[in-house]
Amino acid sequence: MQRPAEDLLKTYLGERTGARVLAGRTKRGEGEKIHAVIWLCDLRDSTGLSESMPVEDFFRSLNDFFDCTATAVLEHGGEILSYVGDAVLAIFAIGGTDRPLREACLPQEGACAAALAAARDARARVDALNRRREKAGEPTLEFGLALHVGDVMYGNLGVPERMQFTVIGAAANEAARLAGLCKDLGRWVLVSSAFPSCFPDQMVSLGHHALRGVEAPQEIFTLIDDPAADLCCAKGP
After folding, report:
1. What single-letter DSSP state applies at residue 119?
2. Distances (CA, A) of 226 to 12, 26, 100, 180, 205
3. What is the pLDDT of residue 5?
4. Which of 8, 41, 101, 122 has CA atoms 20 to 30 A from the CA of 62?
5. Most confident residue range from 100-104, 109-113, 135-139
6. 134, containing H or E segment
7. Of 198, 201, 181, which Cα lies nearest the Cα of 101?
């Protein structure tokens, strides 16, 4: 049976973006400024992994990785914007930019809480996948995940013949820099200083670190239940 166009749009574009397309909001340059959790996760050492196996096996491994990470986002209410190579870019929308972060993250809305739950869920799923891969004699998969909060422009980019919905802005760039820092700091998840103001008891500080393209060093956090976390570090405010 042929799938309805609405279902296909949601599958390929996501719930929020698919609804925009169905509503006819497809004009190039049309967008809105939103406040959101930016959830960016990428497969670590994907180049080495792709060179160590047939391309068909790498393709399957990448889909297995997305099964773990992207599914965690969707099951906790996030919106997947795109798969960028070996990375998952997603948002958990908080609301308008005129609302204070503490107000926007009240439990009944829970965008920040949902993003944290998705992070832990993704970790558990990848761990379970790696146990299966080890039994099959396959290399395990590791990843770096960045969680950041900020204002982004969400809308249409591209040319009239080929557009896509995405988010852009300084906050999106900072999330990418944060994800790149995961390997350097030896952590699977890094969280910006915007988060601990909502969830101080779930974070542990890793000190201040420079992010490429960001003028001042930023305090970086990880989750307290990260096995690699140094719990003697100071907690967030």
Report:
1. H
2. 33, 41, 28, 18, 12
3. 55
4. 8
5. 135-139
6. helix 111-135
7. 198
Q: Which of 29, 26, 68 is nearest to 168 (CA)?
A: 29
12 assigned to some structural domain = no
pLDDT per residue over 188-205, tens digit each?
999 998 887 778 888 899
Question: 205: which strand partners?
Answer: 221
> Which residues are 190's β-sheet partners?
146
Asked if residue 175 lies in contact with residue 160, where contact means CB atoms within 8 angstroms, the answer is no
Is residue 232, in this structure, part of any structural domain at all?
no
Q: What is the pLDDT of residues 137-151, one digit of tens each?
A: 999 999 999 999 988
115, 88 Cβ separation under 8 angstroms: no
Residue 195 CB partners (closer than 8 Å, separation 6+): 112, 116, 147, 148, 149, 203, 221, 236
Establish if 17 belongs to a structural domain: no
Amino acid at residue number 130: N
Distance CA 117, CA 119 (A): 5
- What is the number of domains present in the chain? 1
3-state secondary structure 40-75: EEEECCHHHHHHCCCHHHHHHHHHHHHHHHHHHHHH
Could you list the beta-strand ranges (E) of 98-227: 143-159, 162-168, 189-191, 203-209, 218-223
Question: What tokens appear for 4 in the block?
Answer: 């309805």
Contact 199, 113 (CB under 8 A): yes
Q: Please state the φ and ψ torsions of residue 103, each to the nearest 5 degrees.
A: -65, -40
